[in-house]
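Table 4 source record.
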Amino acid sequence: MVQRCLIEYAPPRQLNRYVAFLNQRMMRLLTTLCLSFVVVVVCSTTCSADAGTMTLAEMIKYSDLVIVGKVVNVTVNGKRIADVAVTQTLKGDRSLTRIRFYAFPIWTCDVSAAEQNETGIFFLRSHFTDDSAEKTAPQDKLDGIPVFFLTHSGRGRLIFQHVDGDDFVYANKRGDVKFPGSLHFARRPKSDNPDLGLIKVADVIAYVRSRV
């Protein structure tokens, strides 16, 4: 109503100023929307590129620690940090019987998470990046227990699926973690996706050991 009154009754000079003001506001709004769209597209593209390029061999290479373990707790000091009891060490410090990792996203494309009582193979890094300044800093610890980051922005977490007395991990030949052709599907879930299957845990562990 106020805008209508200004348009109908304002002197020509004031009307021109008001129209210019509206045009300026509209341009700012359009610029903001365009920038927002660009940010979304760039982030989506970056996430896709980041998530789709790491092979299982690379995950092993870039991990400081690879373990088989069970998540016994997902909250430490009120934070989403997984507490893991180590049952096997495939790469790294074999003296560790308990480790922790950040179970929440650190950045936009991070999928780090954990569920209590889950068992899996965990690929872990002592530091979040390979930045030299960061890598020379002491590793995070809580109550004397080292805290790690999941490799490949949270994708270094292969959870066991118990089927008919055997343990498997889900694998997607075109997924975020690229499994080698030598690891064959032992079973296939009920899915229309031919790239999705179950690989025996024993085969994955043997592959990791062969690459260390």
